[in-house]
Amino acid sequence: MRAPSPFHVALTHAALVALTVATLFPVLWVVKMALSPAQTFSMSANPLPTDVTLANFEAVVSTADGTGAWLFGRQLFNSLVVSGVTAALGVALACTAGYALSRWSFPGRDRLMGAFLLTQMFPGVVMAIPLYLLLDTLNLLDSLGGLILVYSTTTVPFATWNLKGYFDTIPKDLEEAAMLDGASRWTTFTRIILPLARPAIVVTALFAFMTAWNEFILAATLMGDERAYTLPVVLNGYVGEFGAEWGNFAAGAILVSLPVTALFFALQRHLVEGLTAGGVKG
Amino acid sequence: MILALLASAHADDVVLWHAWRGDERTALEQVVATWNGAHPDQQVRPVFVSYESLASKLEAAVPRGNGPDLFIFAHEKIAAWTADGIVLPVSEPSDARLHPVTLGALRLTDDPRLWGWPLAYKSLALFHNRALVPEPPATTDALLDVARGQRGADRWGFAWEASSAYAVAPWLHGYGGGVFGPDGVALDTPANVDALRFVETLARLGPAEPSGALLTQLFNEGRVAMIANGPWFLGEVSDTVDYGVAPLPVVSATGRPAAPYVTVETLFLARDDADARAFGAWMVTDGAASVRLDVGRQLVANADLPVTDPALAAFRAQLDAAVPMPTRREMGKTWEPVARALRRLVRGSVGPEAAAREAQTEYAIVSRPPPAPADPRPWWVLGAVAALAGVAWLAREVRGAPIAAWRFAYAWVAPSFIAMTLLVVLPFLVGAGVSLFEYHDQAWTFVGLANFLDIVLARDFPLSSPLSFWSTLLVTVLWTLANVVLHVGIGVALAMLLREPWVRMRGVFRALLILPWAIPSYITALVWKGMFHRQFGAINGLLEAVGLAPISWFAQWSTAFAANVTTNTWLGFPFMMVVTLGALQAIPRDLEEAAEIDGATGWQRFRNVTLPLLKPALLPAVILGSVWTFNMFNVIYLVSGGEPDGSTDILISQAYRWAFTRGHRYGYAAAYAVLIFGVLVVYGQAANRLAGKKVL
Amino acid sequence: MATLAFDGVEKRYGQVQVLHRVDLAVADGEFIVLVGPSGCGKSTLLRCIAGLEEITGGELRIDGRRVNDVAPRDRDVAMVFQSYALYPHMTVRENMGFALSLQKHPETKSRVDAAAEMLGLATLLDRYPRELSGGQRQRVAMGRAIVRRPKVFLFDEPLSNLDASLRNQVRVELRRQHAELRTTTVYVTHDQVEAMTLADRIVVLNGGVVQQVGTPSELFFEPSNRFVAGFIGSPGMNFLERLDDDIIGVRPNDVRFGPDEPFAAEVELVEQLGYEAMVHLRLGGETLIARVEGTVAPGAGRVGFARAYRFDRATGARLPDRPLSPRGA
Question: Which chain A positions have a beta carbon within 8 Å of C144's beta carbon?
Fold first, then answer.
């Protein structure tokens, strides 16, 4: 292509810088709140911190429960377990289903596919009460297991859809070659298909992880004991109806966002491919 | 393994649920530790549960045997709780003299039993900054004088949560009004209208949108001279402020004292357990109470304990002019209508008379007795016919289909299918079933399609009311449309910029622009809510920095809606950007070069070459994205919260309110949910047709 | 090593029949080429042997064992795909050894090394497919099949993705390997040159029907119908429809020039190819292409045929040779 005019280049960069600054503004602001000694909002338009203290981080991290046990650690552990297992379980369920839907036109396949997508239209929050009753019946209330079960199933439809899209792009030749090489259906799936679908699996797992890592309404409804809380519930408590600890909230928000953001950047390379090469291309 | 981790190791402990924070919590834990030290066989384990979910959790858990042995909550729900068996009667405390108001609050009319141990009482009182107001005003006229006199550009004389029904109650009582008349709820009485007129005047003299957090901040910064607040504020007030506490002033027009509600923090017995009873009785002894008084700075119910702290003494004095929070069931349904009317009044969109009238009307709607029970028999028949038709349809589908040959394929989809059916479809079907019932006063009535008819025919509200289904649907559609247009517009524009190979630091830009996607959406929503704050938000800060007047973002529909859309746009454009970047990779650039050689301008190239090629990749993302946006609860609920007056609520947040904040009308909310699903199914069909292929 | 037997094999997708009663016996060690235009069913037939397609009628036997319902992996056949179907996430070594490693075969390494040596891939064993050229990938695909020592090799147009010079080279190599390994081979192509040079016997398919089975020279010299006659040989046979009651087929080599020849023809165009020239003639309003040695085209004049084939106008079936009886003559 022809070299663009210097004016064009300058304009493009200016637009990018402006939009990036606009994007970063709220983030810088959270950082400022987290580092400020006060628990309040500040009016100034300047998003750079003036007084710097780590007291908020310390306060958030060092919470303890009635027995003096380390509460934040426990809740972080809860969040990690719930999100990690959700991602693993959700993707495991979605992988087999997505592969079957991609490869085999068994009777009822299209209907099943439609049903999976239909569940995306269910209004989530309103289902909290039936879910509560159901988990109670299954005796899974107040347990991370119950939360994991709920999260992983809610992540399954999108995960299945995205993975199916990606599986569709893997040439059938490879499976046929593997079948002739003496591989069973399962071996073909685990040794050929799954390694090839890694970008999509990684991205899908990331989304499932994020779903669980970020959810707080169901977690607040289904979990009773603060030692069973996940971090979003804790965080929401800082600025809930009876709290306005913005400094702690901001510090907590940064702590909660950091792992996901790090994962996101680490997997950025896969993001475009895993999301678009498969599902969205349809 | 996880289940085992969570299983409580102390099955015999007396479990105590509470929502106390800060000093109160410290005091509670200290008292419990003392008890546990002295009673090794009767261990008590306090469990913190957030206040927001404590009541609903109790109501769900206790009847099913999952609840605690004891819990601490305000007394106001005892009428409902005694009827439902959530709380049990306790024996009269004999070891300590408790303030009669607190004991009285825990008895029902015509029933001598005591329904809990009163621990402490809470009410509003007047906090004044001694530097600004050395002597607290004794009358409302004096209060108005101070409010006027102290008012400056960025400072105020008096502030309180003017749009909270709880905070306005003292004035209602002071003017001789209140929530209840002789025949039940009576909000539109002349006395209440007089009180509201005063509220309107007083609110005008205070800061806009006075939330609890704002009051704390303003008072601590010395920018407001007086506030009406409760004892919880003692823990939040800054050391740098020299303040005093006094009872609320006397209403000049009537000569009566402004009487706030007093709520009694009560230790309730949820399970009949001797250890729990022993602990409860001990908790109200003067010895245990003195720790709560000294460490927790609680206004303990024990009448014999001397109150030396002047602030606590003022609250103690306020108790003589206070009204116990009504325990009648109707009370719970008055909060939202009154709060909505107050917000309208404070915002200036209605006058006192209309506000009182509307509060009464909306109360009538939320508390309306359930429709006449429908005859379930036709429904049984209908259900049976539907089930038969379903089975017949299934049989026809299955017959002749090579099911057996594909047995392995079914095995592959079975795990997720079963999980989805159990945990996604079943709850939804239960919800759909609930929509045929109405929940009223803890009882379910089968009402058939009455909920649907009420909603669709907009029977309770005029079509134009923000609470009517149709106007909410319109807002939801606008919301979805605005978001999708902005997401796609910004996402595609950025992707087009980012793909130019001569752009410097492309990777850095891309990484930074994806950032919003990585941050949890509820954090984003809460941060943006703060950024749009009238007094402290950065957006108004920016406006002022460039010389514009600050905006009350949530005071009118257009700006509140814009705030919601801004938040969600920030949240959602990276997804579209990434999708577009991926799709652009698949478009050979020589097509555009060919168009350039043919003389097409940049825009023409984009419009006629790039965009049509992007369409197949973008369309499914747009359709799926629009479904997600349609049900995007977090942003609406956390940013505008439906303000002003529910007009920015979308269908799903409206449904949530009917279920959880407007009198627990579960059936009505479930009918909303079914309608939302119906709308989306219709949309999905239309979208498929539009896309020319099956997306949804 | 094995024999293959097709006994009335049919394949149908719903209402569409893609293979009609195929009968064929392949001898042990034979190199069979399936040839025909695209869509003729040759790939389907190959996939039926592999077990990738189910047979809907008739019987297929490998080494005498009926395999209609035997899963692909239990048939002990190896296939080289048109796309090569190399596993992108495995190195050359892993690709070639995949089948044996599934069986935990003790000789995996030695056999892979031997095959790599034979195919000149020894230095590429640790590379990934994406790091190889087209020809190298093709050889890896062959190596993957060779390593297994299967009963039958199947090739699905394995040379179609290579450029012309490489194609010739690989073709020779294939033939040499077959001479060495003597594994029963079924090879699908639409290129009749490949068919002619590689095959012990050729099966010509059209519309799912076997047209003729025979050695390359049988097919060339004694085609059983007009389709085979036109498909085999390059440039193809001339068909003259106006010369006789039947359709007359003449191979370009069989056109003779001379003053005594029976037909008058006009030279329209001469294509000089170096060793030979293609002469486009006009004969009684029809086009006839003649192939002549040398670089100089003969002048216009009269032509005759060293050999003429005769085909039925309606069915295209070959008719017994007899002298031409020019229409209207």
Answer: 177, 181
